[in-house]
Amino acid sequence: MTETVSTSATTESVEEFARRARQWLAENMPPIDPDNPPFAVRAEAESWERAKDLQKRLYEGGFAGICFPREYGGLGLDYAYQKAFNDECIRYEMPLILNTPSFTICAATILDMGSEAQKRERISAAIRGDEILVQLLSEPNGGSDLAGVITRADRRDDGTWVINGAKTWSTSAFAGDYGLMLARTDWTVPKHEGLTMFLVPLAAPGITMRRIKEVNGNEEFCEEFFDGLELPADAVVGEVNDGWTVASRQLHHERRAVGGGSEFASGTGAENANEMPPDHVGLAEATGQGDDARVQDLAGRALARRIVKKQLIDHVGRAIGNGSLPPNAGTLIRLFHAETTELEVDTALAIAGTAGVVDEGDELSGMLDIGVRYLSRQTGSLGGGSSEMARNVIGERILGFPREFAADRGVPFNQVKRNKT
Ligand SMILES: Cc1cc2nc3c(=O)[nH]c(=O)nc-3n(C[C@H](O)[C@H](O)[C@H](O)COP(=O)(O)OP(=O)(O)OC[C@H]3O[C@@H](n4cnc5c(N)ncnc54)[C@H](O)[C@@H]3O)c2cc1C
């Protein structure tokens, strides 16, 4: 069936667009084996240079920023066109690492909340493949209580700002050009009311950035220290002291991105090996347990969960779309995704047994990556807010349970008791 969407900035049908994309991809993008894609290592600078190069090709070919408005460098088309493009590009190397957080969270938030200049400059630079956007929200004090950030922004008489404080766990910030950074601008009002979001140029003097070494040896995350960082008045995103509205929008986009439901993601392939489902059957066979009923049961349970997850994404996505579930329902997908990942990795390690953690120098030592993967099995239940916080959102905002007690609710932030820093 030919699907023509009248709200789009084109008369080209989705089918015609897909046909044109198919031909262009074949002529311009590097083909891959979708079962064995060349994964980009996010911790390496070359991966980002490669991604920018691929993004530039998409832009020059007229296939970048499909759902972003034309005035900001995109194509202004509906999600149906992006989905059709995603189906076509699955066999080609794509700049997948630019999707999150740069496009799906940061550019999407700037599109909703930014000034006209911020939209024209930052979104189009990202779409052209010139810039990468990152998120600077979490602080060493804790990330769950996002409204409790203590990085401070003080306004000078001329309207410019001075920033002091620290952020942490910033995904890929070392490769970023600008970061969305939440800071406290009024300490005399309750915590949600005294926040402002800023767009921070990451190479500015006054920022010290360090890589964080994770337990699996990866060094993708960064921490940033702001010592008298100066920002112009127009670095504010949204309104001064209304940063919570911007942050809430950002979290909304994050939940959609993590659940795989963002129209701003281009390409849906696995970004790295950790996103590929472990091959439980292959593992069982390699360890001589292919006929073991208990192992078959474990593998079957993990497979069933994966199938349910796929159905849940479709179901919740549709329900949010038709209004039968609130937008916060994306949290259901995010929680289920985290739990499914943990079950899959736990199952893989249970099947691999000691081969997953001990290098005996034999043919099974290839399974050691299962052990390394196990070390980061919980990233999905922390990134974008922890699973406990997701349960709070589901309880309070979807099921309508009473709100959790908070000792700081309604209390001016400078009177809230907290640890000395
Ligand atoms: C893969 C990944 C990517 C990330 N990327 C970014 C990024 O790009 N930018 C960024 O700013 N941050 C990022 N983070 C940080 C992330 O947002 C935080 O880890 C998360 O918000 C939790 O904060 P925390 O680690 O400080 O834990 P804390 O907030 O200190 O929480 C500790 C524990 O207490 C529990 N807890 C806290 N409050 C409650 C409550 N009210 N009810 C029940 N339980 C509670 C939490 O669930 C958690 O188990 C990333 C994290 C990961 C793992």
UniProtKB/TrEMBL annotation:
Domain Acyl-CoA dehydrogenase/oxidase C-terminal: 241-399
Transmembrane segments: none
Keyword DNA-binding carried by entry: no
Cofactor needs: FAD
Keywords: FAD, Flavoprotein, Oxidoreductase
Gene Ontology cellular-component annotations: plasma membrane
GO molecular function term, any single one: flavin adenine dinucleotide binding
Top-level taxonomic group: Bacteria
Sequence ranges assigned to domain Acyl-CoA oxidase/dehydrogenase middle in this UniProt record: 137-225
Acyl-CoA dehydrogenase/oxidase N-terminal domain boundaries: 11-129
SUPFAM superfamilies assigned to the protein according to its UniProt record, in alphabetical order: Acyl-CoA dehydrogenase C-terminal domain-like, Acyl-CoA dehydrogenase NM domain-like
Annotated family: Belongs to the acyl-CoA dehydrogenase family.
Name of the featured protein: Acyl-CoA dehydrogenase
The organism of origin for this protein: Mycolicibacterium wolinskyi
